[in-house]
Structure formats: structure tokens, C-alpha cells
Design a protein that fits this description.
3 helices; two-stranded antiparallel ribbon; mainly alpha; 2 domains
Length: about 170
């Protein structure tokens, strides 16, 4: 019973010495999740072992500290693995998004090249042209490009309506 204050004093001393930062300017490296788990588990296990084993508190503290440290290390390793999986999934999502953006950019450039080569054959907006639909023997006139004009700068962010395939009306 007389050793209990010494054990608690040792725990307080260790927690304050590991918990405070020194006044010197030094590079502080963060602890890995495994190290944090092992330290917390070891201290908690040592305290619990010393409290539980009333006949020999030192042995109880050592056994509890080892067991707690091992369990804490396992928990920290599990947390570290989850963090690595999340980071890998986020990197994969960014890579997929970059591939899709590159594909859209190439598609927009291809459409832009296609529209610039066929631009001379375009009919002015709001004009009536003969369509392929026939009623009897007569050709039916149809409106082409009645509402919108093709956007020759599709995919180019420096031009207005760069994300739209067609230019919009301004009125």
C-alpha cells in the first residue's frame, strides 16, 4: 500500500516529461500512430496492472505495461493502415479526375478542329434550308441553327462560353 503513491508519482513524472515540449528550438517530429498507441497503452497498462495486482505492484505494472503497449501498438498500426488506405483512395480519385479532364480537353480540341474545318459550310443563323425530310415529292424547309450558333472556341477557357458547345443568345 505504501508503494502506490510512488507508482502514481512515477506515472505523473513520465507523463509530464513526455508531454511537455522543451524551450530549445528544435525540429519536432510527430509520433507515428504506432508509437502513440504503444506509449499510451503502456502507461495505461502499467497503471492498471499496478492497481490490479495488490500483492506485487511492480510486477503488475510491468506486465500491464507490456500488455498495454502491445495492444496500443496494434491499435496504432490499424489506424495507420486506415490512413494509408484513405490517402491511396484519394490519390486514385485525383488521378481518375485528371485523366477525365485530359480526355474532355482532348475531346473539346477535336471538336474545335472539326468545327473550324467545316465552318465555311455552315448556314447563317435563322436561315431556312431544305432538309432531307420530304412530304410527297416536295422538300420541307427546316430551320437550321435557329437558336444558337456553334461555338468555335469550345474547350478554351479564355473565351466566353468555353464550356458550351454552342454560343448562347445575348438578348
Amino acid at each position: 500500500m505504501k508503494k502506490l503513491p510512488y507508482i502514481f508519482g512515477l506515472i505523473v513524472l513520465l507523463s509530464t516529461s513526455f508531454g511537455t515540449r522543451s524551450a530549445q528550438a528544435q525540429i519536432l517530429k510527430s509520433w507515428s500512430p504506432q508509437a502513440k498507441g504503444a506509449a499510451i497503452g503502456g502507461l495505461g497498462g502499467a497503471a492498471a496492472g499496478a492497481i490490479i495486482n495488490k500483492r506485487n505492484r511492480a510486477v503488475g505494472g510491468v506486465v500491464g505495461g507490456v500488455a498495454g503497449g502491445a495492444i496500443g501498438y496494434g491499435v496504432g498500426k490499424h489506424i495507420d493502415n486506415k490512413n494509408k488506405q484513405r490517402a491511396a483512395a484519394a490519390a486514385e480519385r485525383r488521378a481518375v479526375a485528371a485523366r477525365e479532364a485530359a480526355y474532355r480537353r482532348e475531346l473539346a480540341l477535336a471538336r474545335n478542329r472539326q468545327t473550324t474545318t467545316t465552318q465555311s459550310a455552315l448556314v447563317p443563323a435563322n436561315s431556312l434550308t431544305a432538309s432531307n425530310a420530304t412530304v410527297g415529292n416536295a422538300m420541307v424547309p427546316a430551320a437550321s441553327n435557329a437558336a444558337y450558333m456553334p461555338n468555335t472556341a469550345y474547350g478554351d477557357a479564355s473565351h466566353p462560353y468555353g464550356t458550351s458547345e454552342y454560343r448562347r443568345k445575348s438578348w
